[in-house]
Amino acid sequence: MLLQFPFSFHRTAETVAYLTAVLKRFADYPLVVEVRHGSWNAPETLELLRTSGVSFCNIDQPIIGRSLGRSAQTTSAVGYVRLHGRRNDTWFSDDATIPAHERYNYLYTTEELAPWVTRVHKITERAGETFVITNNHFQGKAVVNALAAHQHLEGIESESA
Fold this sequence. Notes:
About 40% of the residues lie in helices and about 15% in strands. It is an alpha/beta fold.
């Protein structure tokens, strides 16, 4: 179960208490936590997830202001990655004329995927299983990028064998 929190969910005493309560409430389920604000990039966050047996969601998103950066963290037996795209111009737009799906209208280049392939490989070394979700879904771009990432991952696995 993915527990996704928006950029506005900053790390404070209150939000840490809230997250801790949610993790306890849903402890019977396999959980992944996705936070988007850079304030969560703290050892205490990773320790909370680790001691709760919860996975950290490594994300790719536009890096604007205090956005959470790209990472290869593992806090449980499940590795998790979500690639949202990098549409800086629409990510935080208040323009009501821009449809919400435009935020995810992004096709990664091979050069942009390459570091993620390396990160996924590192995550997989520490996790029992790893999930990579391409969330740049507009016009099937997620499928194109998922296939490209899969092809690159197979290449890395062949080289290390």
